[in-house]
Design goal:
With 727 residues, the protein is of the alpha+beta class. 27% of the residues lie in helices and 28% in strands. Strands 3-6-1-13-10-11-12 form a seven-stranded mixed beta sheet, sandwiched between helices. Bound molecules: pterin cytosine dinucleotide (MCN).
């Protein structure tokens, strides 16, 4: 807002050219010819890049997936060669002296297509791109012993991530050093660096990836865009910097989308309402090709499908189908909202069919002791699910204003969020001015790591947080890491900072001992000062000694620099969400009048930022309920390719979020932290879905709950049962 941000589009390099893309208009077609105008014929045109021109210079995206997932050999190509498989797929790039010239020249590239039939519905598709199954516990016995089996089929549509800043990249190549620098709007530099290294078959040391300010990602910027790869090749080939910034329609058409999953579930219950076993078959609409993260969300959904319940046995099968749509990938929650939605809708349906109270049915089956091993192989670290549930119920019921007439419903849902895992790293240096500079492998793109990590460091070092400076997002300046996704940065990268700072303190203690003439074991460190024999030194004093090395006693290291890597087990955040909704019987308009969020993210580092994460996530979860849907027609054309057609929730549709606090620290990292970056997006969806079902007298509808659909549901089913309006 102050104009101080610097996004990719704000970066200019001398002699820079611009790229624009020729994209498929067909969901499925053979390419019989590409006629490109020659440079010179069109003003400003420098080059046209096609798959043919890229041949031998790039490889397709690496095939990757979670361990155990069977993948078809169908990686996303960089540019389409013989065939296009989705509307918006990049076919050729035009490089020109200005963006306008590039976009004009795109119109001059003629692609001859032979249209083929498009497969839009995952169920109609014969091609499996990814498959995974897992089972644990005695599922057969669970179903055999069941007094009741409750079944349900629930589905979530595809969504777009809709970051304010669309995808963007700028590549510059230095021939003398043979190094390629890529500025890109991504979630972190690590994954694009590894992906570029694979695709360009280039030594990572010959690559530098810089992530400047990012205008939102929400999971959609974890894989380097094919367009950015083309820009890199063009920059190397032409010897000039090349920039690409997509427009909004391109972001709708060609950035990977989220969700798009359907589940058929069966829950076996005993006479006293205990959950005995779960069976599920998930069908995911993966789109036309596999990107490195396409298989991740459905796999995550599957592994989390037993949620926060003590279900001793489960068998899950996931089938990811190929369709003629843009590939899918992570979008805020990345499989977790899907899991919570499928399971929590099923539990509500089970309560209704059993004539049980939906809260009591949940309460009876909650996991209560930790660590807990799920039948699908996860080990939950800690939690207090019942306290989350009770806190949410109390807030839902708290002083409710007079309710106007209408059809009312309320819903409650719990979730478990898999966070952390893998590793991150950090370095810390004491500067001459007494500041401590920390380079972190995590990369903020809206989460506020700058403040969060400064607080972690300030606490550890006993100084004001203003004395901490953070460095992020430049592969030349930050230590290696895995990436910012999956609500893992605070727990994993934050813990790496703790370890690095603990080492820095030990180095400083040795230095202080030398200066104070005491044995290091005798130097106490408290509130930012090193104390021995009645004298003490602060960080600035030590910095002065370090940077005036000649004043140091012999044998003392003249630099304070520490680094650390934290290898993390998975941690499991959890939460309970509750919603109260009203459907206008005249118009079908849904209003969420109350939304309650109780997220247990372990020890919270910055309550204000954590709140921001919860509210932001909840807004996305609510948008998913109320209006969002990527709609494709039978020809595979995206009918919602702009904000005129794709609804996004605005402030008007957002109720105040009542936030309840529960914090069970994780025993698996030194901060006790879990993740909170996705909680709102995970919890709001099933809570509102359950409230809508309640308002409809128990009838199930999948989101989005647009007015017309709710109006029809009310009209078809007649007025809902009397009980529903009372909640
Ligand atoms: N936090 C805290 N204490 C904790 C955990 C988190 O105080 N125990 C606060 C911290 O302020 C931290 C923030 O919450 O900076 C998020 O931390 P964490 O839960 O570790 O999540 P990550 O930093 O790894 O962020 C990833 C997460 C994901 S997966 C998506 S998607 C998402 C999200 O963050 N995308 C976002 N939040 C986003 N926020 C913005 N503005 N833009 C995006 O693109």
């Amino acid at each position: 807002m102050r104009g101080a941000g610097c996004y990719v589009d704000d970066i200019f390099r001398p002699g820079m050219a611009y790229a624009a893309f020729v994209r498929s208009h067909h969901a499925h077609a053979a390419i019989s010819a590409i006629h490109a105008p020659a440079p010179g014929v069109v003003p400003g045109l420098l080059a046209v890049m096609t798959a043919e021109r890229l041949r031998g210079r790039v490889r397709p995206f690496p095939l990757a997936g979670p361990p155990g997932v069977e993948l078809a050999d169908e990686p996303h190509p960089i540019l389409a060669e013989h065939e296009v498989r989705y509307v918006g797929q990049p076919v050729a790039a035009v490089i020109a002296t200005s963006r306008a010239a590039a976009e004009d020249a795109v119109e001059r590239v003629e692609v001859q297509y032979e249209p083929r039939e498009a497969v839009v519905d995952a169920h109609a598709s014969q091609v499996v791109l990814a498959r995974w199954s897992a089972a644990g516990g005695d599922v057969e016995a669970g179903f055999a012993a069941a007094a009741r089996v409750v079944a349900g089929r629930y589905a979530l549509p595809r969504l777009v991530a809709a970051p304010i800043e669309p995808r963007a990249a700028l590549a510059e190549y230095s021939r003398p050093t043979d190094r390629l620098t890529m500025w890109c709007s991504m979630q972190d530099p690590h994954r694009p660096l590894a992906q570029l290294s694979h695709i360009l078959d280039r030594d990572p040391a010959r690559l530098r990836v810089i992530v400047p300010d990012v205008g939102g990602a929400f999971g959609s910027k974890g894989v380097i865009p094919a367009e950015a790869v083309v820009v890199a090749v063009a920059a190397m080939e032409l010897g000039i910097p090349v920039k690409w910034v997509e427009d909004r329609t391109e972001n709708f058409l060609a950035a990977y989308q989220g969700r798009g999953i359907e589940g058929e579930l069966e829950l076996a219950l005993s006479t006293d309402g205990r959950m005995l076993a779960l069976r599920a078959r998930l069908t995911a609409d993966l789109g036309a090709y596999l990107l490195p993260t396409t298989a991740v969300p459905p796999h995550t959904t599957a592994t989390l499908l037993t949620g926060c319940y003590q279900i001793p046995a489960a068998a899950i099968e996931v089938v990811g189908k190929r369709t003629n749509k843009v590939p899918t990938g992570p979008y805020r929650g990345a499989g977790r909202p899907d899991a919570a939605y499928l399971l929590e809708r099923l539990v509500d349906d089970a309560a209704r069919q059993l004539g049980e109270n939906r809260i009591e049915l949940r309460r009876r089956n909650l996991i209560r002791s930790f660590p807990h091993s799920t039948p699908l192989g996860l080990s939950y670290d800690s939690g207090d699910y019942e306290r989350c549930l009770d806190t949410a119920i109390a807030l839902l019921d708290e002083a409710r204003p007079e309710e106007p007439p209408g059809v009312w419903g309320s819903g409650i849902a719990l979730y478990v969020e898999r966070a952390a895992g893998q590793w991150e790293s950090a370095t810390a240096t004491l500067e001459a001015d007494g500041r401590v500079v920390i380079a972190s492998s995590a990369t903020p793109h809206g989460q506020g790591h700058e403040m969060t990590f400064a607080q972690i460091a300030a606490d550890r070092l006993g100084v004001e947080h203003e004395r901490i400076a953070l460095r992020f997002g430049d592969s030349d300046l930050v230590p290696p890491g895995v990436g910012t996704f999956g609500s893992r940065s605070t727990a994993v990268a934050g813990s790496a900072i703790v370890l690095a700072l603990d080492r820095l303190v030990e180095q400083a203690r040795t230095l202080a001992a030398g200066v104070l003439g005491a044995a290091p074991g005798r130097v106490e460190f408290a509130r930012g000062r090193f104390i021995a024999g009645g004298r003490s030194l602060g960080w600035s004093d030590l910095a002065a000694h370090v940077h005036r090395a000649e004043s140091l006693p012999p044998g003392v290291q003249p630099a304070l620099l520490a680094s650390a890597r934290f290898d993390s087990e998975r941690v499991f955040a959890s939460g309970a969400y509750a919603a109260r909704v009203r459907i206008d019987p005249e118009t079908g308009q849904l209003t969420v009048t109350r939304l309650v969020a109780v997220d247990d993210a372990g020890t919270i580092i910055n309550p204000l930022l954590a709140r921001g994460q919860i509210v932001g996530g909840a807004a996305q979860g609510l948008g998913e309920c109320v209006i969002e849907e990527a709609v494709y027609d039978q020809e595979g054309q995206l009918r919602t390719a702009s904000f005129l057609d794709y609804g996004l929730l605005s402030a008007e549709g957002m109720p105040e979020v009542l936030i309840g606090e529960v914090a069970t620290p994780s025993p698996r990292n030194p901060l006790g932290a879990k993740g909170v970056g996705e909680g709102g997006a995970i919890g709001a969806l099933p809570a509102v879905a359950n409230a809508v079902a309640d308002a409809l007298g128990g009838r199930h509808l999948d989101p989005p709950y647009r007015a017309e659909r709710l109006w029809r549901a009310l009209a078809d089913g007649g007025p809902p049962e009397a009980g529903a309006a009372a909640g």
